[in-house]
Design goal:
Shape: elongated
Radius of gyration: 24 Å
Helix content: 25-40%
Number of domains: 2
Strand content: 15-25%
CATH topology of the largest domain: SH3 type barrels
CATH class of the largest domain: Mainly Beta
Number of strands: 7
Strand order of the largest sheet: 6-5-4-3-7
Largest sheet: 5 strands, antiparallel
Oligomer: single chain
Order of helices and strands: HEEHHEEEEE
Distance between the termini: 44 Å
Number of helices: 3
Structural class: alpha+beta
Length: 154
């Protein structure tokens, strides 16, 4: 593995550790003091001692984080490709990619539906889509369902 990639991921992992420590009530300090809840490693990765940097690198590499991150992203194509909720717009034509999401309904995989409504959270992120189908039925799709595919030309 490239040292540069390991260093970048280690720095990010260290930032996450610092955030976790701050959230737990710890503060940066010149030295570690559990009574005062100060820790000398709550600082940027670049300002850590060489020993702490080496420890963080070793822990990052041993954690398997790099392999896990590499497996956590997928770029589906073909029959596995779906459209994310954030990419939908009202009126857009869509198809289903899995029949299990509409079991018991009169909707076929070849049917083309249209996005009727999008619900957003307080951050304006789309969290739900309602799709109307030619049969007159409506289905609700939430973040993570990954069962819709936008149809070209919509």
């Amino acid at each position: 593995m490239s040292t540069s990639l390991l260093d970048q991921l280690t720095a990010v992992a260290h930032q996450c550790w610092c955030r976790r420590m701050r959230d737990a009530g710890w503060k940066p300090g010149r030295k570690f003091d559990p009574d005062l809840r100060t820790h000398d490693a709550i600082r940027s990765f670049e300002k850590l001692s060489p020993i702490d940097q080496r420890h963080a690198r070793t822990a990052t590499e041993a954690s398997g984080a790099i392999a896990l991150l590499g497996r956590s992203i997928d770029y589906p194509r073909g029959h596995r490709q779906t459209t994310q909720l954030q990419d939908l717009v009202i009126g857009q034509h869509v198809k289903l990619v899995r029949a299990d999401s509409v079991e018991g309904l009169n909707i076929q995989l070849q049917d083309v539906g249209w996005v009727l409504h999008l619900s957003r959270d307080e951050d304006e992120k789309i969290v739900q889509a309602i799709v109307a189908w030619p049969s007159g039925e409506r289905t609700t799709h939430v973040l993570g369902d990954d069962d819709l595919l936008a149809v070209n030309g919509s």
